[in-house]
Design brief:
By secondary structure, the protein is an all-alpha fold. Helix 2 crosses helix 3, helix 3 packs antiparallel against helix 4 and helix 6 packs antiparallel against helix 7. The chain contains 11 helices and 2 strands. Helices cover 68% and strands 3% of the residues. The protein has a two-stranded antiparallel ribbon. The mean pLDDT is 83. The protein is globular and about 55 Å long. The chain starts with a helix and ends with a helix.
């Protein structure tokens, strides 16, 4: 019901199909690895709407989850946090880590689809996601029962818009890049995966030379350069 209310976009479909796949498999006593569940959800979305394969949102949505799965550290190396504040600190740290993984890992796809990447996107997400998830969305839904809550939700949303506008106005908030050749696209995608993979730091640094070709800024047209010289 919430996915329909949200517009039934590709991210909502992905979430619904992944939950449905996990619930069905669990009810049958079967445990699939998460990448297999993600692939099943992608196949379901593509079967219902083959045109979704041509949407940037399809690839960004599923690749984001795949990156978070690939970058997840081994569970056996983690000890459960004891106490309220250690658990809260771990939750905050893992939230920041997830956003960092998504930001770095999706940068090559953003450059591929849009020829630009947001430099302030990480900061914007760290502000927007908790605010929308924990306050704005619950208040908007509860407003169906108590309409006065919509006023508070609207005020928070307007405040968020102001913060995002300030971030977008920063110099260099968006990095523009040239259309990359196929070899640079492949190298950049590999570099994004390598940057967030749970590997030693010395290996992840190898992602930098793979990502650099995607970051090449666009070259000004010859006519524009000539006009600038004579004005």
């Amino acid at each position: 019901a919430y996915a329909v209310l949200a517009g039934w976009g590709v991210p909502a479909q992905r979430t619904v199909f992944m939950i449905a796949a996990v619930a069905l498999l669990r009810s049958l006593g079967v445990r699939w690895p998460l990448p297999a569940v993600l692939l099943a959800a992608a196949c379901a979305v593509a079967a219902l709407d083959p045109w979704a394969l041509l949407q940037a949102g399809f690839w960004l949505s599923f690749v984001a989850v795949a990156l978070l799965v690939a970058a997840e550290p081994v569970q056996g190396n983690r000890t459960p946090a004891q106490g309220r504040w250690p658990r809260l600190w771990r939750a905050v740290r893992e939230g920041v880590r997830s956003q960092l993984v998504a930001t770095v890992g999706l940068a090559p796809l953003s450059l591929l689809f849009f020829q630009q990447v947001s430099v302030v996107g990480l900061v914007a997400n760290l502000v927007a996601i908790p605010l929308v998830t924990l306050l704005i969305t619950p208040l908007a839904l509860l407003g169906v029962l108590l309409p006065a809550l919509w006023t508070l939700a609207a005020a928070l949303a307007q405040g968020l818009v102001v913060v995002l506008q300030v971030l977008a106005a920063w110099p260099g908030a968006v990095w523009q890049a040239a259309v990359a050749p196929p070899w640079a696209v492949v190298a950049g995608l590999l570099g994004g995966l390598l940057a967030v993979a749970p590997l030693p730091a010395r290996l992840r640094w190898l992602a930098l030379p793979l990502l650099l070709p995607l970051l090449a800024p666009p070259v000004a047209p010859v006519a524009a350069v000539g006009m600038a010289l004579f004005t």
